[in-house]
Design a protein that fits this description.
107 residues; alpha+beta; Glutaredoxin; 4-stranded mixed beta sheet; 5 helices; 16% strand; iron; Monothiol_GRX-rel; metal ion binding; redox-active center
């Protein structure tokens, strides 16, 4: 399976996926940490994460897959939502909580 197919499978198999540096328990960059905090505050539970530091192929190819150059990258229901700044903005507006609730309800 190609790395692009692997990425697609992960994105389509989970309602909420965060491609990040590190893990939710041990984020390896401030942006990933803030995205995790926003998701947690928005009520996201049991969402799927991919540590791009442990998978160089995914790290190298995800920006081509999503057309988004940086990490973290948040996908909800198969759709790229954005990176840290967009995730935090959506949380502050209350939109992220709605999106998370809808995605988890359908899971």
């Amino acid at each position: 399976m190609s790395v692009m197919d692997r990425i697609k499978t992960v994105v389509e198999s989970h309602p909420i996926v965060l491609f990040m540096k590190g893990t939710p328990q041990f984020p390896m960059c401030g942006f990933s940490s803030r995205a995790v905090q926003a998701l947690k505050a928005a009520g996201a539970v049991g969402y799927h994460t991919v540590n791009v530091l442990e998978d160089p192929e995914v790290r190298a190819n995800l920006p081509r897959y999503s057309d988004w150059p940086t990490f973290p990258q948040l996908f909800i229901n198969g759709e790229l939502i954005g990176g840290c700044d967009i995730t935090v903005e959506l949380y502050e507006s209350g939109e992220l909580a709605r999106m998370v609730a809808e995605a988890q309800k359908g899971a």
